[in-house]
Design a protein that fits this description.
- The structure holds 2 protein chains of 2 kinds.
- Chain A is built from 5 helices and 10 strands; from the N terminus they run E-H-E-E-H-E-E-H-E-H-E-H-E-E-E.
- By secondary structure, chain A is an alpha/beta fold.
- Chain A folds into 2 domains: about 90 residues, Fe-S cluster assembly (FSCA) (GMP Synthetase, Chain A, domain 3); about 60 residues, no CATH class.
- The termini of chain A are close together.
- The N and C termini of chain B lie far apart (about 35 Å).
- The model of chain B has no long low-confidence stretch (mean pLDDT about 95).
- Classes of the chains: A alpha/beta, B mainly alpha.
- At the A-B interface, loops of A face helix 2 and helix 6 of B.
- Chain A: InterPro entries: Fe-S_Maturation_MIP18 (IPR052339), FSCA_dom_sf (IPR034904), MIP18-like (IPR002744), PaaD-like (IPR011883), Zn_ribbon_PaaD (IPR056572).
Chain lengths: ~170, ~250
């Protein structure tokens, strides 16, 4: 979590930023996702930098527009810039964000090593978001969006998304 | 290093990614199974995202009035500097996987070097892309093994693709004038030094997949100089159609 410290976010802006969510995972605010890298006010303009989860993530443009709109709603003008470095990692998802993912039916990312084994079918470590069983299998390394893989529970048979670990 | 060297150098890297991304996009809705269809288009999405980062950088550096779209859609065939490998058609799924595998092994090595570039933007793009490309390589390596060590038919088909595409691998390690100029200034990397490790890695996985390693010593080149194969024209006519037909159109 050390990289968190590099964020420079004006605490007064947080309540507004928390209202903006990932359009593809509506339960996750951009703050909980860890994509907001800086936020400050200068000369009456709110300057925000965000970092993409994946290079081609189509949600980034929408998030940028949503941020501008959220500030417009409270009478503020905002500018959004994209930064690539340091590269986003799933470690930046907050504990609250992980909980929201699980409740929404998306298994939260594991550690990189566990992830490798799970994705290669070596170990059964990804828990079913429906019944909690660890008796699950990988159906597809790639899922409905760039950040997810598709799993299925062998006990309750429910298919579910897994948020891939990215480090 | 002149500015033009840097521009051409970035094209050399970015055009590979764009053209392979375009080839994979052609599979959208046409993959052999739902999972592989989604996988190929997900990989395409990553590659097109990386392309955008490179082209946005070029646009910002050199042409104030040009955008990433001008670079992607409005150049002529000889202005694209991608290697011949990535423009080869999707003939059958064996070709898709072998082309991907041959490129992924190289791509990951290239990015691992490029992250040490003295150019901060290129280094940042590389660091970001490494995470994505490691995943691509895992996918394509797995499929090489699954097809090679699969049924008689899958083995024969993937072997055919290996034999056919092998001749495009050597070009990955050729240095252009722009590569040399950027290498001297610490921005570019030396792809020649990657070659031994590349073939070692590729051969290990082919052997594990029970596939024969081609013995040909004749290799095809030209893409890096803008001299492309016949397939490139067709690919570009697809890629550029909308911008050529409706200039300046927007989504």
């Amino acid at each position: 979590m050390s990289t968190k410290l590099e964020q420079h976010i004006d605490p007064l802006l947080i309540p507004i930023l928390e209202k903006v969510s990932d359009p593809e995972i509506p339960v996750l605010s951009i703050m909980d996702m860890g994509v907001v890298r800086s936020a400050y006010v200068k000369n009456d303009i709110v300057n925000i930098t965000i970092t993409p989860t994946y290079s081609g993530c189509p949600a980034m443009d929408v998030m940028g527009d949503d941020i501008i709109n959220a500030f417009e709603d409270v009478g503020k003008k905002a500018k959004v810039a994209l930064v690539l470095s340091p590269a986003w990692t799933t470690d930046w998802i907050t504990p609250r964000g992980r909980k929201a993912l699980e409740e929404y039916g998306i298994a939260a990312p594991l550690e990189a090593e566990a992830d490798k084994e799970a994705l290669l079918g070596g170990k059964k470590v990804v828990k079913c978001t429906n019944c909690g069983s660890s008796n699950t299998k990988l159906v597809s390394q790639f899922g409905s969006t760039a950040c997810k893989a598709l799993f299925q529970c062998e006990d309750c048979l429910e298919p579910f998304d897994y948020f891939k670990c990215l480090k | 290093m002149k500015k033009e060297n840097l521009k051409q150098y970035i094209y050399g890297i970015a055009d590979n990614v764009l053209i392979l991304g375009q080839r994979l996009s052609e599979l959208c809705g046409h993959g052999p199974s739902l999972e592989t269809d989604i996988a190929c288009t997900n990989i395409a999405l990553d590659l097109l995202g990386q392309t955008r980062s490179y082209y946005q950088y070029v646009a910002q550096l050199f042409d104030e009035d040009k955008t990433e779209d001008d670079i992607a859609f409005l150049r002529t065939e000889r202005q694209y500097k991608n290697v011949l490998l990535v423009e080869q058609p999707n003939t059958h799924f064996g070709y898709v996987i072998v082309r991907q595998f041959f490129f992924d092994v190289f791509h990951l090595q290239l990015l691992q070097q490029l992250q040490n570039s003295t150019d901060e933007t290129l280094s940042a793009i590389a660091k970001k892309a490494i995470k994505e490309v490691s995943y691509h390589k895992r996918f394509s390596s797995d499929w090489i093994k699954r097809l090679g060590d699969g049924t008689e038919e899958s083995h024969q088909k993937v072997q055919e693709a290996v034999n056919d595409l092998w001749r495009f691998t050597d070009e990955l390690f050729h240095m252009t004038e722009d590569d040399i100029a950027t290498l001297e200034s610490g921005v570019g990397i030396d792809v020649r030094v990657l070659k031994d490790k590349y073939y070692q890695q590729v051969k290990e996985i082919l052997q594990e997949a029970t596939l024969d390693i081609p013995e040909t010593s004749w290799f095809q080149k030209g893409g890096k100089q803008g001299i492309h194969s016949e397939h490139m024209g067709y690919l570009l006519s697809d890629l550029q159609y909308m911008q050529r037909t409706y200039p300046d159109m927007k989504w």
